Amino acid sequence: MTTLQEPRLSTGSLLRLATAGSVDDGKSTLVGRLLHDLRVVMPDQLAAVERVSRERGLAAPDLALLTDGLRAEREQGITIDVAYRYFATARRRFILADTPGHVQYTRNMVTGASTAQLAVILVDARHGIVEQTRRHAAVAALLCVPQIVLLVNKMDLVGFDKDVFAEISADFARYLERLGVDDPTSIPISALRGDNVVEPSQAMDWYQGPTFLQHLEEVPPAPDPTEQAARFPVQYVIRSGERDYRGYAGQLVSGVLRPGDEVVVLPANRRTTVAGIDIAGRPVDEAFAPQSVTVRLTDNLDVARGELIAAAALSAPQPTRELTATVCHLSERPLGVGDRVLLRHTTRTVQAEITELVHRIDVETLAATSNPGKLRANDIARIRLRTATSIAADKYAVNRHTGSFLLIDAASGDTLTAGLIGGLL
Amino acid sequence: MNALTRAHELTHLGVLEAEAIHIFREAVAEFERPVLLFSGGKDSIVMLHLAGLAFAPAPVPFPVMHVDTGHNFPEVLAYRDMAVDRAGVRLLVAGVQEYIDDGRLHERADGTRNPLQTVPLLDAIRTNRFDAVFGGGRRDEEKARAKERVFSVRDEFGQWDPRRQRPELWSLYNGRHRPGEHVRVFPLSNWTELDVWQYIEEQRIVLPSIYFAHRREVFRRDGMWLAPGAWGGPKNGEPTEVRSVRYRTVGDMSCTGAVDSTARTVPEVIVEIAASTLTERGASRADDRMSEAAMEDRKREGYF
Ligand SMILES: Nc1nc2c(ncn2[C@@H]2O[C@H](COP(=O)(O)OP(=O)(O)O)[C@@H](O)[C@H]2O)c(=O)[nH]1
Q1: Which of A177, A199, B151, B181 is at a distance of 20 to 30 A from B102, taking alpha carbons?
Q2: Which of B29, B170, B274 sits opposite A114 (nearest CB)?
Q3: Which CATH superfamily is domain A320-421 in?
């Protein structure tokens, strides 16, 4: 039995999700199972998996092979980087950021979660909530992923026991409460057998909730970005000589804009009015997030890349040169007080200096260590920075786009750190 | 109002389009000399279309480059010239044939020229000092591509090092690079084959005729239908026959296979794809079958 008529034809909305789990919890098997049951996996891919599984002496095809990408991973036998997968049902399209669970790769989870509207955390029913689970949940909460789902996997290895599931779900809910997240969804599954992944489980009739896929299809998408105040970081100035055209190209990251709207250009703090909005060179009556559009302003202001056009309201960000943020350090190069870096915020890049490392956060226990010395890869910490010129930022919890930044090594160009302005922890 | 429908909500195609336009504009704002790889294939056609939308009413602010294997389908070359003319962009052609003629490259024993494109491509990037190269790669195409970044830094030899790829968060793309290095930019990263086709339909984008069913003389090799041509096929003992076929990708004639098809319109192609049982690359690219890690190896060398 299947609920899917035309699994690959859909014109519905798009949901971005990220998965996380410790090594061996069954994440690759889950993703392989999902792709297999949704028939995203084509017979030629399946044939390759069957061949390799046979070569390795396995009794059944190892669906995890479907998602193992790079050579280094195959050699180490673990997933080491974020991989993106695509699948669809009649109702929705999904982009899945498959993030590895190995402890030193918190940064991958942060990367995957940064765009996710839903985080999937996998545990082994035999082990329950472990250190990594707490890490992953904390990262998802920190990055304000709107929905968190716990999958209790390998239920077949605990005799499909209702009480085991109930206990793990309760444990998880208690931990999330400490992170300020209410009511996570928990689903008992067996990725290997396919129970409650796409098809409902025959072995767990005590579970009345949705299968994992039903849940993905039915969760309300992230808070509507168009209900927030308008924010439009200017990317590029489009000029066209013939018509004396000057338009500001960018993506509306939140809110709705219409001709006639009062706006403020930040950080210069100049008020003006939207004269017109063009999409593909043609005027429109309104634009809404996340459309890419071109905005024309009434005054002859000279606005440049890196400036922010925001709805003129009390909620418009106050330009500042002092920031407090929660950061996840991504690079092998340590970061310390006094370090000079580039700060990339929306379309603006400015110089910045680390002025204080307030504390490091143990994402497992949520305990803070003051004076942490230097930040190392995968550390999560609270820091203060000063920028050379002002930026107009929102709090990350209010707006993921105007509340996030990267720190970049000016010499190597490497991305060092991901930052959340304000920040939870 | 239903919880799933909102006053303002883009369809998945609208979201992908907005994201691709954003990527084009980021690259043009951050780099000095971008170029778009244009093969006349559907992905590059969609890219050129999106670039037009991104910068209207101004013209597309970068040239396009075709790496010509010398074994291209004539229909595709004709389409290329027409499309470039219409978009008002400058076309550069880097020719594999010249490299073979003057001995800088050697024809492979199997006659396949796709792997030979890397050298002319990297030379053209170097001599033109291109610092950003738009490619039509999609993450759904192949396992090694699933981890590709939207902005992917290549070293001065054009090589891709999976360990040096920068984490990419939110929609903040870091394109900083050292002199001599360049960045591959993939605006269609998050599109699937079906998305591309649905977008072609939605936007009424015209494609080269070989994407639609037509009668063609073909012969069977390695489970694919190949077209005879100056590149050297068929060999002895490979009988040809006329069949109704179409192409799912366009590349070098020596390794791009046709599939049996009766789909003459975009909607008919979409129906066929949705029901198809072979992935796009598996169906029509002999060079990807060479080994499990073929794509990854070529990426390291600087292939698209
Ligand atoms: N019995 C059982 N084994 C499972 C299940 N899911 C995964 N496994 C096995 O657990 C091992 C680790 O799975 P894998 O998907 O590679 O884990 P990953 O490291 O999280 O990607 C493999 O041997 C799987 O076959 C399940 O639901 N039940």
Answers
A1: B181
A2: B170
A3: Translation factors (2.40.30.10)
Domain with CATH 3.40.50.300 in chain A: 11-218
End-to-end Cα distance, chain A? 46
Residues 242-271 of B with CB under 8 A from A: 270
How far does the centroid of ligand 1 lie from the alpha carbon of residue A408, in Å?
37
Determine which helix (DSSP H) or strand (DSSP E) holds A54, and give its type and residue range. helix A43-55
Q: What is the pLDDT along chain A (425 residues), one digit of tens a residue?
A: 333 334 344 457 899 999 987 778 888 889 888 888 886 665 666 677 777 777 777 766 676 666 654 444 545 444 457 888 888 888 889 999 988 756 556 888 898 999 999 999 999 999 999 988 998 899 999 999 999 999 999 999 999 999 999 999 999 999 999 888 888 999 999 999 999 999 999 999 999 999 999 999 999 877 788 889 999 999 999 998 777 899 999 999 999 999 999 999 999 999 999 999 999 989 999 999 999 999 999 988 889 999 999 999 988 999 999 999 999 999 989 999 999 999 999 999 999 999 999 999 988 788 888 878 899 988 999 999 999 999 999 999 999 999 999 999 999 899 999 999 996 55
- Among residues B47, B56, B30, the alpha carbon closest in space to that of B134 is found at B47
Q: Which residues are bridge partners to B102 per DSSP?
A: none
Residue B130 burial (10 A CB sphere; 0-12, 13-18, 19+): buried
Longest dimension (CA), chain B: 68
Residues of chain A with CATH 2.40.30.10: 226-311, 320-421
Separation in Å, CA of A167 to nearest CA in chain B: 32
Supply the DSSP symbol for A318.
Answer: P
- A11-218 has CATH 1.10.1060.10 classification: no
- Name, in order, each residue with C-beta under 8 angstroms of B204's C-beta and a sequence gap of 6 or more: none
Give the list of residues 6+ apart from residue A116 with CB closer than 8 angstroms, or none: A16, A17, A18, A97, A140, A143, A145
- Options 3.40.50.2300, 3.40.1390.10, 2.40.30.10, 3.10.20.90; CATH of A226-311: 2.40.30.10
Residue A214 structure tokens? 């039903």
| pTM for this predicted structure | 0.90
List the 134-173 stretch of B: residues with Cβ below 8 A of A: 139-140, 143-144, 146-147, 153, 162-163, 165-172
CB A84 within 8 A of CB A97: yes
Is A220–B277 a contact, with Cβ atoms under 8 angstroms apart?
no
Residue contact A43–B277, C-beta within 8 A: yes
Ligand 1: centre distance to CA A57 (Å)? 17
